[in-house]
Amino acid sequence: MDGKIFGLRWITITLIMLGALINYLTRSSLAVAAPTLLGDLHIGDKEYSYVLLAFQLAIILQPIVGWILDRVGLRIGMTVMAVVWSAACMLNGIAHSWQMLASLRGVMGFAEGSANPAGIKAVALWFPARERGFAAGLYNIGASVGSLLAPPLVAAAIIFYDWQFAFVVTGAIGLVWALIWFLFYRAPDQQKLLSEQERDYIAAGQETALEGEKAPSFFATFRGVLGQRNFWGIALPRFLADPTWGTLTFWLPLYLTEARHFDLKQIAIFAWMPFLAADLGCLFGPLVVAFLQKRGLGLINARRGAFTLGAIMMLGVAFAGLVDDPYVAIALICLAGFAHQTLSVTVITMASDLFKRSEVATVAGMAGACGNVGLMIFSTLIGQTVHQIGYAPFFVALSALDIVGAVVLWSVVRTPPNSPSVPAEKSFS
């Protein structure tokens, strides 16, 4: 035995997925604890929207986080980011005012903005083009599973202990992951456990046009990306689509409490279901892309087709706030999770298809920042107006925004001349 691990790329992306899981578990913990926490700290919906705003303002700095990951690498960069977000999450347990909570959530927002840039960079480095969709779908499952686990875990911690304990536990899990990541991860050209066969397989399936040296200065990279049409072609759909994920993550427990009159135990039973549906969407999107490619569509057009299908499915979500039966509403919100991840994973992956590997984390961060601006605006509107107009108009808006996003994706993105057309047979070895 030579000590090499076969299929190491899948082990690596699984570890990335676990990091994303913990990332979204910690960020989702506040939403689940909110009905209890807001009462204890005497925080109203308006102040709660300010806490969410602090997180979103900080996570908009994703381009800086992405550039850091491009410059220092994933091993050091993700270790530092995970330690920061985990420690800040644990400190949520000692918050005594909305201002303190907002400050801590801001720190978390900056560090947790590393999730998508890191995932896309890992996909670009470790996978040939024909496997990137499935790899991105796998790591995106972590976001859904983390959000899925938050309602039962946090609710159990509150029921048996208190909401402070919930933040300490979820933060501590992140510190454990940071240690494992630091000890295990190396880039493909430095990973001694990677077999030569797999190294050659990865290299053979990557586009030579997307090779590049280490990213230049942040402002040079930033200006260069902003001037590219394809960046806006993926960033604007993110701006329009990401409010769905923010609504599920930050407002679903309060919606179930205020509009459907669920108690904490009912929230623990039902609030995770849309995220399970989202997990399935993470895998469904890449399957749609593969299906369309086998029928002759190029890679970029196949990804646009999967996004469009997800946007069409989102039309059903418009009725979530209009139906009388709360269980039908939950079913429609589950559809939102499935449809959103179907379209989201495809447009997120396009950063690795359109941009150099030396800048892909920065691009993913910049596109993610646009998505979070949309999420921030939408979430703030909910906080400011929900008591006047209810939740129903927001579900209608989510459906419409994704249709517009599909139109933008088709009309703005231009297919690179070297983009793969019909995929070769996939290998999962």
**Biggest sheet details:** none
- Please compute the radius of gyration using only Cα atoms: 21 Å
Helical content band: over 70%
Q: What integer is the average pLDDT?
A: 86
- Structural domain tally: 1
* Fraction in beta strands: under 5%
Give me the CATH architecture, please.
Answer: Up-down Bundle
| Low-pLDDT segments | 422-429
Shape: globular
Task: Report the top-level CATH class.
Answer: Mainly Alpha
Task: Kindly report the name of the CATH homologous superfamily.
Answer: MFS general substrate transporter like domains
N-to-C CA distance? 18 Å
Draw up the topology in text:
Layout: H1 8-40, H2 45-59, H3 62-72, H4 74-91, H5 98-112, H6 115-126, H7 132-160, H8 163-184, H9 196-204, H10 218-226, H11 229-258, H12 264-270, H13 273-294, H14 299-313, H15 326-354, H16 360-389, H17 392-412
Helix pairs in contact: 1-4, 1-6, 1-7, 1-8, 1-11, 2-5, 2-16, 3-4, 3-16, 4-5, 4-8, 6-7, 6-15, 6-16, 7-8, 7-12, 7-13, 7-15, 11-15, 11-16, 11-17, 13-14, 13-15, 14-15, 14-17
Protein described:
By secondary structure, the protein is mainly alpha-helical. It has a single domain, classed as Growth Hormone, Chain: A (Up-down Bundle). Helices cover 76% and strands 0% of the residues. It has helices at residues 8-40, 45-59, 62-72, 74-91, 98-112, 115-126, 132-160, 163-184, 196-204, 218-226, 229-258, 264-270, 273-294, 299-313, 326-354, 360-389, 392-412. Helix 4 packs antiparallel against helix 5, helix 6 (115-126) runs antiparallel to helix 16 and helix 7 runs antiparallel to helix 13 (273-294). The longest helix has 33 residues, at 8-40. It is globular, with a radius of gyration of 21 Å. It starts with 7 loop residues before the first helix and ends in a 17-residue tail after the last helix. The model is unreliable at 422-429 (pLDDT under 50).
